[in-house]
Design brief:
This protein is an alpha/beta fold. It contains 10 helices and 5 strands; from the N terminus they run αβαββαβαβαααααα. Strand 1, helix 2 and strand 2 form a beta-alpha-beta unit.
Length: about 210
């Protein structure tokens, strides 16, 4: 009996509106694979479902605070415009559902996917999100020499050569930079990301899929 309980995904529900919280919690309790944690004890939940009318600054703060307690976040949102969709992603939401689609099966599937460490966004929202990211890259980042991963092309070029084992002078010669410029680029990367040294920077870039 205990083994069955332990195998269920522990989920909490947060909503400023008690009626919304009760409704979603009731939907989740219908699913035998889920265990609803009472009293909003997020520290005991693997996943917390945030029910909100829109993704505003308060929602983002709540999502980040819940994640600091170790719980992943799924958002159920009544009104989700493009800005709210992007804000939900930036807030670290592992799953996003429009309130109209928040039936028991859909919510439970999204919660389970989040508990497994994966993300879940409905196809129509994913299309909107990709459009948003494309516009961000084209209109905001590209004119500044940046990409969505937060690295400039110059930084990527230097990291790639570092990963190939080149030293500062060789990188400077290959990229037609001064050695001081190469050192500054490396220093900027390690300082910004709080990395220990060049090797740590290369390892970070590999894990992040940057090089």
């Amino acid at each position: 009996m205990n083994q069955g309980i332990d195998s269920r995904v522990r989920v909490a529900v947060y909503a400023t509106d008690p009626v919304s919280a009760t409704g979603i919690a009731g939907e989740l309790r219908l699913r035998p694979e889920l265990l609803v944690i009472p009293d909003n004890d997020f520290s005991k939940a693997q996943v917390t479902v945030i029910v909100t009318d829109e993704v505003d600054e308060g929602t983002v703060r709540t999502a980040k605070a819940i994640q600091r307690d170790g719980s992943r976040v799924v958002m159920v949102v009544t009104r989700l415009d493009d800005a709210g969709l992007l804000a939900a992603v930036e807030a670290g939401a592992s799953g996003i559902l429009p309130r109209a689609d928040a039936v028991s099966r859909r919510v439970s599937e999204t919660v389970i996917t989040a508990a497994q460490g994966d993300g879940s966004v409905p196809p129509d929202l994913l299309g909107r999100l990709l459009d948003q990211m494309s516009r961000l890259q084209r209109q905001v980042l590209a004119p500044r020499g940046l990409s969505l991963n937060g690295f400039s092309q110059r930084e990527v070029d230097v990291l790639k050569l570092l990963g190939d084992g080149w030293d500062t002078s060789e990188i400077a010669m290959r990229l037609a930079y001064s050695e001081r410029t190469v050192k500054n680029v490396i220093h900027d990367i390690t300082s910004r990301l709080q990395l220990r040294n060049r090797s740590h920077a290369v390892a970070y870039a590999v894990r992040a899929g940057i090089i």
